[in-house]
Amino acid sequence: MPTVLTIDPNFGWSVLASLAMGVQCFVTGGSVAAARKKYKVPHPDCGAGRHASKLSDEDWEKFNVIQRCHLNYVEMISLAQSSVLLAGLFFPRVAGALGLSYLFGRFLYARGYVGGNPQARAPGFMIVLLSNVGMIGAAGYGALQLLGYL
User: Fold this and answer.
1) Within 13 A of 36's CA, how many CA atoms are on the CB side?
2) In sequence order, which residues have a C-beta less than 8 Å from that of residue 120 and are 6 or more positions away?
3) Which terminal residue of the chain has fewer beta carbons within 10 Å of its beta carbon, N or C?
4) In degrees to the nearest 10, what's the CA dihedral of 19, 21, 26, 27?
5) Confidence class of residue 127 from pLDDT cuts 50, 70 and 90?
6) Can you give the pTM of this predicted structure?
7) What CA–CA distance (Å, rounded) separates 45 from 136?
């Protein structure tokens, strides 16, 4: 039996948050491209190849911190984007707010990590973690409601 899906106009906040996550991830990729040029580490070297092995220890660490910051984003973006969109179907304003906090956490994470002290990424990491848990929880709760379990 066909079902009509009515999407709350506030779902747009979830869509914007998801798009902003993609843009933010793309921008962090740009900082890796700049680091490749600065430290002369061409593709396909990801920080452990023959070109990176020619760097001083200090430059090697700086390059790898930038590379790792971007890779962490790439590793997590599919979960974040799908969660913000799915949560947004059930709780659009909550999902939009959690998506915004995720973006802010990612900004703090990158700023702290690349700033010279990798431990400084911890506050951003906690915001990202809590935002992810919130988005996953909201999506899961909404799904269970839809199935009639709650």
Assistant:
1) 17
2) 111, 112, 113
3) N
4) 110
5) very high
6) 0.91
7) 34
